[in-house]
Amino acid sequence: MRLDPGAADLDFRQKARTWLAGNVPHAPAPPDGQASRAYALDWLAKLHAGGWSGLAWPEAYGGKGLTPGRLLTWYEEYVRARAPSTLDCTFVALNHAGPTLIACGTEDQKAFHLPRILEGRSIWCQGFSEPGAGSDLASLKTTGRVDGCDLVINGQKIWSSFADIADYQELLIRTEPGSKRHKGLSWVICDMSLPGITVRPIRNMAGVSHFAEVFYDDVRIPLTQVVGGLHDGWTTAMTTLGFERRTAAMALQLELSVRIEDLIARAAPAPGSAMADRLADLRAEAAAIRAMSYRTALREPATPFDGSVVRLAFAELAQRIHRAAMDVLGPDALTDGQWVHEYLESYSETIAGGTAEIQRNIIAERMLGLPREPRA
Amino acid sequence: MSFDLTPTDDLRQILDAAQTMLDTHYPVARLRTDGQTDPMEPLAEFGTFLLALPEDAGGAGFSVVEEALLHVSFGRHLVSPSALAMAIAARIALDAGRDDLAAGIGGGQITVCTAIAAPDGPLLCEPAGTTYALVVADDGLTLRPLDGATQAPVTSMGHGRSMTRLTALPDPSTDLRAKVETARLHTLLCAAQLLGIATGARDLAVDYAMTREQFGRPIGSFQAIKHHCADMAIGVEMLSAQLDMAAIAARDGADDAAFQIAALACLAPRIALENARTGIQIHGGIGFSAEADAQLYLKQAHVLRHCLLAGDLLSLPAPMAPFERQPA
Ligand SMILES: Cc1cc2nc3c(=O)[nH]c(=O)nc-3n(C[C@H](O)[C@H](O)[C@H](O)COP(=O)(O)OP(=O)(O)OC[C@H]3O[C@@H](n4cnc5c(N)ncnc54)[C@H](O)[C@@H]3O)c2cc1C
């Protein structure tokens, strides 16, 4: 078990540090809308030009194929330099849509989309959840009827992050009439500019519009846009790549270690005070989250559970850190500001991408082997 | 590979061998009888107290990484805190040039118990037959000969394992103080044992949740129980990942070793106590009884938390502190 960087690793770290120091934008990211899109795409294009995009992606697809150790190094430098959050509107493309296309896409799909994603030329969103299908995703109802060479889509998605500014959507729909649950679904690339699509942004509790409702009214999507098998979309949706599992959340998890330092600096607690104790506990937990990120990245064989445990531990710690920030701020917590904004945003951590309750079910059932939940 | 957290074959072999030794000599159920004192010979024979000492000092030349993970197994078996005391005492003796003493401890001929400083005099854990005590106090660790000491019997928490109180102190001039690095190692190994407790409590609870039935199905199918188990697993994962970081940093003498160990020491007692508590709850009535093992994890967690010298985490520089931004 080793964590000793060699000369080449140290050189890589120094290069990353220097590049980031010279290139991280000084202006904060705009909160939402087209301005946030432009900002994120600019940053990604800059990363690309600097040779820093697609670091985890395989080289065959335009990525850099970096080792997990190098990725940890890069993201540590990234968060310490306060580079823009990786959970912006480029996240789905880089960490989910791209990897899914790599795993399941046709050559045409890959050739068209992957360069656009890496170069900062297209934004993707995810259209999985529906008003009636959240945790129970397999109960989704939006349909795609096969009509000649097209699918004709009707229905509604909700909570689709950045749908209002996205070029494409990974859309999961029911294509086999009368099918139930996981069967008969398809995963399709939906061009968001197609006629029949209506996007209604939804403001979140922090006051910004990051997610949206999407309505589909006879939207025609060519069958060539199906990724993976027709009617076999669940398999596509559940396919994750090793590199994606190991790296998607890395930056966010490491960033907590920076966040807690900011809070400690701001609070400047008296030694021995209750606040000092509380911040020490949070600092220790943030260190453990970093340790878990290391383990997820650097231990073979990787188990799918490493990711779910650290994800949940991260989510709940993020909430506790921001909750502590509200106590540090005192009455200033009632006015808007960075900490207050992040505090409110942190409520999504235990909901988005699978709620904490669902994560606990998964850990208990798949990792510990306890009996499965009743299924519909 | 320069970055790799996969357990090595060497490590796996040590842990497998240890498991056999622990199952034979230290089954958890042995502690259902009050006033137990664990023998140190099987541990000494295994090479426990010499494992990470340099080979020219009679050691096996393994590192503190292997040693820490071995102590996790000890924690799972609720091995006496004397095991921790002896591993550290051998080092203190060696640092003080007392090779004879180090060899005696290493071979198990000389035994050392843990003494936890307390207002009315240090509490000795399982002192029978020991000639030295490793005294754990806020200001550090001292190895103290016990000849000439007087001890008064004490009933330990919940009538658990044997304990006495030191009432008269022998001549302190022969005491040996632990170096800062040795004290840090003590914290590391103690935290490793607390992880073992958290892990053992989790496994016992998960087993029980799968077999105990109520309302016609295993209690582990009820979400309240399932989520308790998940929480125990999360605690174990956090702590064990942090243990790896801390042990590697300690072995390598890394800049952040003090930070990583202090963070570990902050988490370990909390998670061990919490898992022990949850473990009792998952067992229901039998969890509250002295005839089942769930409560044993709780008591051992209380003992070890007082063996742990927790540093002041906030006073240490953080490895992930943000960089100062250059003005635009
Ligand atoms: C910020 C944010 C961004 C999002 N972005 C996207 C996106 O880009 N694309 C997308 O498709 N979706 C997105 N989502 C949706 C997200 O995936 C869902 O909100 C989530 O899966 C929960 O579904 P739900 O909201 O319908 O809640 P429900 O499933 O209705 O859950 C309500 C409550 O019931 C609990 N519950 C439900 N089932 C169980 C069970 N079996 N056991 C125990 N408790 C249960 C839940 O834990 C929760 O507390 C986003 C959500 C948020 C908050």
Protein model, in words:
The complex is a heterodimer of chains A (376) and B (328). By secondary structure, chain A is an alpha+beta fold. Chain A folds into three domains: 7-118, Butyryl-Coa Dehydrogenase, subunit A, domain 1, CATH 1.10.540; 124-232, Butyryl-CoA Dehydrogenase, subunit A, domain 2 (Beta Barrel); 249-367, Butyryl-CoA Dehydrogenase, subunit A, domain 3 (Up-down Bundle), CATH 1.20.140.10. Chain A is built from twelve helices and nine strands. In chain A, the strands form two sheets. In chain A, strands 2-5-6-9 form a four-stranded mixed β-sheet. Chain A is globular and about 70 Å long. The termini of chain A are far apart. The mean pLDDT of chain A is 95. Chain B is of the alpha+beta class. Chain B has a domain at 180-315: Butyryl-CoA Dehydrogenase, subunit A, domain 3, CATH 1.20.140. In chain B, 51% of the residues lie in helices and 12% in strands. In chain B, the strands form two sheets. Chain B has a seven-stranded mixed β-sheet with strand order 6-7-3-2-4-5-8. A two-stranded antiparallel sheet of chain B has the order 9-10. In chain B, helix 8 (257-283) runs antiparallel to helix 10. The longest helix of chain B is centred in the middle third of the chain and has 32 residues, at 180-211. Chain B is globular, with a radius of gyration of 20 Å. The two termini of chain B are 39 Å apart. The model of chain B has no long low-confidence stretch (mean pLDDT 94). The interface between A and B is large, with 65 and 58 residues. Strand 1 (2-3) of chain A pairs antiparallel with strand 1 (3-4) of chain B. The structure holds flavin-adenine dinucleotide.
